[in-house]
Amino acid sequence: VIITPSENCENGSIQLDKDYAPTGTHAWKGPNGYSSGLSTPIINNANENRSGTYSVSVTYNNCVLTATSQILVGPKISIKSNSPVCNGSSIQLSASGGGTYSWKGPNGFSSTSNLPYVSNASTAKAGIYSVTETSPGACIGTATVSVKVKNCTSTPLGIEGEVEAELVVSP
Predict the structure, then answer these.
(1) How is residue 163 annotated by DSSP?
(2) How many whole angstroms separate alpha carbon 121 and alpha carbon 64?
(3) Is the pLDDT of residue 14 over 60?
(4) Is residue 86 within 8 Å of 161, Cβ to Cβ?
(5) How many CB atoms sit inside 10 A of residue 21's CB?
(6) What angle do CA 80, 75, 31 make, to 5 degrees?
(7) Do the beta carbons of residue 146 and residue 164 sit within 8 Å?
(8) With 50 as the cut, is the pLDDT of residue 164 above it?
(9) In 42, 96, 130, 152, which residue has its Cα 20 to 30 A from 113's Cα atom?
(10) Percentages helix, strand, coil for the chain, rounded to the nearest 5?
(11) What is the per-residue pLDDT across 28-40, written as a single tens digit (0 to 9) for each?
(12) Residue 127 pairs with which residues in a beta bridge?
């Protein structure tokens, strides 16, 4: 017995099915206390709380067939930036989730990398960056991150930001 499908879109429906099992008594179990006695149950309005391990036991003529499978409801995007950054430095963005990416941002920024960077940061490049991920199962998710660009002071030593020092005078 094989459980299908393995990936489902957020707010969509999960239809649990198996590749082959004779008629009999079905016992489905899943995350967050999910259970069903239907042959091919449907879970509507799926969200990430429905991601996890599902199992089915089919009892027929005193024989029990079992199967387990990981079901993913997604995509689930994790997004980060190195904000705040100093004027003239680089903005580093990252997204993870396992699909393809499409970034958009201030000043006409766009990228298809999961780890894009924006060189020569300026206030024109500060703002909201958004990424759309398309998962291998054609599910689409979006996330945003706010990037701030600061005017940082620089010391003669080339140290950016605030500097604390102690002056020691020796005779």
Answers:
(1) -
(2) 62
(3) yes
(4) yes
(5) 19
(6) 115
(7) no
(8) no
(9) 152
(10) 5, 50, 45
(11) 999 999 999 998 8
(12) 147
Structure tokens at 85: 């950054």
Amino acid at 121: A
Q: List the end-to-end C-alpha distance of the chain, in Å, as a whole number.
A: 86
pTM of the model: 0.62
Query: Backbone dihedral region of 137: left (phi > 0), alpha (psi from -120 to 50 degrees) or beta?
Result: alpha
For residue 159, count other CB atoms closer than 10 A to its CB: 12
Structure tokens at 65: 């067939």
Q: Which residue has the tokens 């990430």?
A: 48
Diameter over CA atoms, the chain: 98
Do 45 and 11 meet the contact criterion of CB atoms below 8 Å apart? yes
Place of tokens 């003529």: 61
CA distance 60 to 126: 63
Gap between the Cα atoms of 6 and 29, Å rounded: 15
Instruction: Tell me the per-residue pLDDT of 76-112, one tens digit each, with 9 for 90 and over.
Output: 788 999 999 999 999 999 998 778 999 999 999 999 9
Q: What pLDDT does residue 33 have?
A: 94
Q: Is 170 exposed, middle or buried (0-12, 13-18, 19+ CB in 10 A)?
A: exposed
SS3 at position 149 = strand
Closest by CA to 119, choosing from 87, 80, 150, 94, is: 87
